[in-house]
Amino acid sequence: MQEVDRVRLTSRDRVRLTRRDMLRLTIGGAGMFVLTSSCLAVTSGVGSGGGPLYIEAFPTSPLVLNPFNESLPLPKLAAPVPKSVVDTWDSPPGPDNQAFVKGAGPFSHQLWPGTAPVADYPLPLVYHINLEVAPHDFTSSLVQPIDSSGKDVAPPGSDNARPRKLPSSTIYGFDGRFPGPMINAEYHNPVLVRFENHLDQDNGLPRQDFGAPNFSFLTHLHNGHTASESDGNPAQGYQRFSPLGRLDHRAAYEPGEWVDNLYLGYPAGGDDREKQSFFWFHDHVHGHTGADVYKGMVGLMPLYDPKIDRGDETDPSGLQLPGRRTDNPDGSFSVDYDIPLVFYDTALDDGVTPHKDAHTGTGETHPEWWGMTYFRHLPNHGFVGDLFTVNGKAFPVLEVKRRKYRLRFLDASISRIYEFQLMQSSGGYKSARSLGLNGDELQGQYRLPDGRQCMQLVEVACEGGLLPNPIVRDSFELWPAKRREFVVDFTRYMGGDLTSPGDEIYLVNIMKMTTGRLWDSADPNYKVPVLKIIIGDDPPETDVSVIRPALRDVPPLVAGATGAMNDKSVPTFELQRGSTKADPEFEWLINGKPFDPANPQITVKKESEAVWRIRNGGGGWVHPLHLHMEEHRVVARNGTLAPDARHPDDTGKEDVVALDPSEDVLISRRFRTFVGPYVAHCHNLIHEDHSMMFAWEIVP
Ligand SMILES: [Cu+2]
Predict the structure, then answer these.
(1) Which of 75, 383, 434, 617 is deepest in the core (most CB within 10 A)?
(2) Which phi and psi (to 5°) does residue 38 adopt?
(3) Centre of ligand 1 from the C-alpha of residue 200, in Å
(4) Per-residue pLDDT for 30 more than 50?
């Protein structure tokens, strides 16, 4: 791969060239180039076999002409299946009926309610979610086809450059939705979800060229304290499916198969301090996780704590975080003023950007897929789109009452890291192209040129659940797979002035990231509005929510954690750019090895604890390293005890280690309740799918 590296250019090195220049460069041996629609030259990687491995060309999405005109969609609340109906199923859930796999089974649950340590837990509420092929619209606005210089262009096959309706994209979704249904769950109240594969039915929709080729799924509840068989991870998939000769993407549930994932709502160790508060579930098929997540396999599961955080601000025995709870007759409940925000960036096909990479390598274009989601399985660094969506819509609007809200942020993007701030503007938003920007500077499509911060956000939870103490933030980063929860008071601005009905506020992304490698250098003019918030009326009831100075204690660090800072003998996992003979596509390794589910990199004993070191072995990339099974606490970063100024919420727990270039992070973790195979992997899903993942196992 060294030869390739010499000619590899970053997107910032892209240069406008004529075809004559291209010819000269190619003859001169400066490397392979391809031309994008606007004659932007980009490098084309060469695999060890000499064939094209990847082409760093991405389409320019059409411009959404009327942004901020559609309401922010809220995920549909999932409803449990009545027991009277479940009892009529051919194969109802039970302790020894965990999955249906053709030619195999039966499979059992490790732990079923009624057995210690969940002896006093009720039987699970049963949900039924089908994996389905469905259409999805990112906007109802007309769109203007543009090229990478921002100019109007006629799409291939069209005789004009006029605005037009955006075609539906095809998703593989939980119940055919993106984001999928939202399960509101509670600790001490188990949930069982039967995920059933119907992805063989295309419903007449074009599937395009990405997604697991056998239409399989493997649903992971990120980061549930979940038994291995319900965890939906590729190491467990290997254990279950390899005896059938099903490896890689075949080590997952294919059409006609189903699995009952049991989410017990049991905090690790029975310790209230281990409780979490906001899960999401997503696909995890080996080698196609990125493609399947990008294709829509994303669902939400906020998790409430009946003791102190049950979604009811009127209950003085709890923390009284913002939320008004309604219990439904079917056993589900909804919570007002508690809003999930799922961030996902996409690129839409312009019909002229070559499609294929290592998988077929012919570089053809697909004008018939114009305006639909475009994916590249193996880009050089990661996959970043140029159209930013929230809850599946581009540029939505959220109208809020004049009161406090709880906002739950999730980055469901493949590679993109965001930094968000709440801003006001006098001049309003402008299209990036109207500001004279082009190329990668068009990413995000709109800018808020005079945007200035107008509100702070109070962080109350990260992906590990409630923080020990709230943290006031002017802005915050959101890395792939991470969650962060905030209370925002929409009654007043940070200067103290009261808000008025009709006031407009924007949630703005201020982190420029034009490749999947890491952020670009800081650009004070990069202010991309992604969500418009309109202040509405006063709420019908008095806002009695509060932000208490103390939220929830964290569990102690494991014994000897701080003393291990300079201990070279602690298990160390170094994330590296590298290659192996195993597969020319494996470009991302951990401890020099690709993912090998048959050989766990480490085995640990159930009910044990450990200090692990997670290290970014390179200076050129960042990696969000996700560890399944239990939350960890950060002990130290680069030899300095946590928290540091850059990571104030290292006071809490987390399940994704945000690794800056060359960063060395010591973490404290435990392994309780369950046994079996688990994984840890980079959540830049391009890196994961190209082998930045390792298997590990808990044994009795
Ligand atoms: Cu990575």
Answers:
(1) 383
(2) -100, 20
(3) 31
(4) no
Ligand 1 center–CA 625 separation, angstroms: 7
User: 398: CA distance to ligand 1 center in Å?
Assistant: 33
List the domain boundaries for the chain.
7-57, 70-304, 342-535, 562-699
What is the 181 CA–ligand 1 centroid distance (Å)?
A: 28
**CATH class held by domain 70-304:** mainly beta
Q: Would 342-535 and 562-699 be classified into the same CATH topology?
A: yes
CA of residue 22 to ligand 1 center, whole Å? 32
- Distance from Cα 5 to the centre of ligand 1, integer Å: 18
Residue 518 Cα to ligand 1 middle (Å) = 10
> Cα of 280 to ligand 1 centre, how many Å?
20
**Angle CA(126)–CA(129)–CA(133) in degrees, nearest 5?**
175
Distance, CA 666 to ligand 1 centroid (Å)? Answer: 18
CATH architecture of 342-535: Sandwich (2.60)
pLDDT tens-place string over residues 179-219: 999 999 999 999 999 999 999 999 999 999 999 999 999 99
Residue located via tokens 């906020």: 302
Which positions ≥6 away from 311 have C-beta within 8 Å?
184, 304, 323, 324, 325, 333, 335, 338
CATH of 562-699, one of 3.40.50.2300, 3.50.50.60, 2.60.40.420, 3.90.180.10: 2.60.40.420
pLDDT in tens, 307-345: 999 999 999 999 999 999 999 999 999 999 999 999 999
Alpha-carbon torsion 479, 480, 485, 489, what sign? positive
